[in-house]
Amino acid sequence: MKQSPYRREKKALNAEMNVVPYIDVMLVLLVIFMVTAPMLITGVDVDLPKEQTNTMSQSQLPVIVSLTGSGEIFISYESNIDLHISEPELIDTLSTLQSQSGDAGAQPVQVMINADQNNQYGAIMTLMATLQQAGIQKVGLLTGAPLPTPTL
């Protein structure tokens, strides 16, 4: 009897794993990661100064300028604590402190701004411009410790 041309031949089962589709998937994922990785880098390139910081000694206590939510300015330095002061008086006081530190050959005056979190950005920038007019070069911003987040 003649065999039918439409009959299937029985082949032995191939028990090996076909990895070609897995390699294709891997190459597609590689291309996706190569395309998206440069998009994940955000921010502005800034060349930060590389200086070693020193701890402040007791003779280098900073001047603390406080700005309330209502726009009032207070200053704390040496033995004067929370003195209410106007902008022109602030400039005069800081200029005097700056000249005194320059005469003694000490470090320049460091000023820390203690501003209420409800202040407008413009009010804080105006205060920083006032400090710059007084010749202050080192200004920092004080922050409080973050509140712990409640867990549910």
CATH topology of one domain: Nucleotidyltransferase, domain 5
Fraction of residues in helix:
25-40%
Molecular shape: rod-shaped
Q: Which regions contain 5 or more consecutive residues with pLDDT less than 50?
A: none
Top keywords for this entry?
Nucleotidyltransferase, domain 5; ExbD; 3 helices; cell division; 152 residues; 17% strand; alpha/beta
Task: Summarize, please.
The chain has 152 residues and is of the alpha/beta class. 34% of the residues lie in helices and 17% in strands.
Polypeptide structure, described:
This protein has a domain at 61-141: 2-Layer Sandwich (Nucleotidyltransferase, domain 5). Helices cover 34% and strands 17% of the residues. The chain is built from 3 helices and 5 strands; from the N terminus they run αβββαβαβ. It is rod-shaped. The chain starts with 19 loop residues before the first helix and ends in an 11-residue tail after the last strand.
Write the layout of secondary structure elements.
Layout: H1 20-40, E1 63-67, E2 73-77, E3 80-85, H2 87-103, E4 110-115, H3 121-133, E5 138-141
Parallel strand pairs: 1-4, 4-5
Antiparallel strand pairs: 1-2, 2-3
Helix pairs in contact: 2-3
Family: Belongs to the ExbD/TolR family.
GO cellular component, one term: plasma membrane
Main location: membrane
